Amino acid sequence: MPEEVSTLNPNKWIDNYADYLFNYAVVRVNDSDLAKDLVQETFFAGLKSAKNFEGKATERTWLVSILKRKVIDHYRKINSNKGKAEVRMNFYADGDNEGNWIEERVPQSWDNASEKDIENEELKTQLDLCISKLPEKYAMVFKMKTIQEFETEEICKELDITASNLWVIIHRARTQLRKCMEDNWFNN
Fold first, then answer.
1. CATH code assigned to 86-188
2. Rounded distance, CA 64 to CA 149, Å?
3. Among 171, 162, 113, 109, CA closest to 138
4. What distances in angstroms separate CA 58 from CA 10, 11, 21, 129, 175, one per listed residue?
């Protein structure tokens, strides 16, 4: 049976993929305007490089891979212009295991769903505040590895750090986040 080859249909990209790509981007950059810009850049890059599409992946997978590069380029730009931007991250994202290193300390019993939503939003706000207090590089590396799930080698290459340096940064970021959350959330 011959392999099925995907084809591109740029006229349907906005209808079929804009929301998915926006959600993908906003979780990674925590800025809706920036996420919109990155999606737009993704569509332009897709149009420019459509001739390189081999049909081995779906349109969506191919566009996500372009968007992933745009996100990495964004962080590379921030990293090269230290002090020009505050890197913040959104702790909550899709996935069963995201943030599990701290979830063990969250109360497990809830009275009702609305209280849970309020408490989760308050927790997220406090965590965002703690993350904003991290050194820029710590926040960036922590987000790329823990939230965005980039591969170690990819982060090291993009940020020009060693694997052992990456794990030291992640450990220090987690330690600082845990202390900040203990001081400002769990002990209140």
1. 1.10.10.10
2. 14
3. 171
4. 13, 15, 14, 38, 40
> Token pair for residue 159?
């940020």
* Burial degree of 115 (CB within 10 A; 0-12, 13-18, 19+): exposed
Closest CA to 74 of 132, 159, 153, 131: 159
Domain residues of the chain, as ranges? 1-82, 86-188
Residue where the block lists tokens 């959330």: 185
DSSP secondary structure letter of residue 180: H
Which one, of 99, 60, 86, lies nearest residue 177 by Cα? 99
Q: How far apart are CA 181 and CA 178, in angstroms?
A: 5
Report domain 1-82's class.
Answer: mainly alpha
Cα-only R_g, the chain:
19
Average pLDDT for 180-185: 81
Size of the chain, expressed as the number of residues it contains: 188
Residues 88 and 135: beta-carbon distance below 8 Å: no
176 closest CA partner among 144, 123, 132, 125: 132
Confidence (pLDDT) at 38? 93
pLDDT, mean of residues 144-158: 84
104 three-state secondary structure = coil
User: Residue 154 corresponds to which tokens in the numbers above?
Assistant: 């990819």
d(CA 122, CA 92): 12
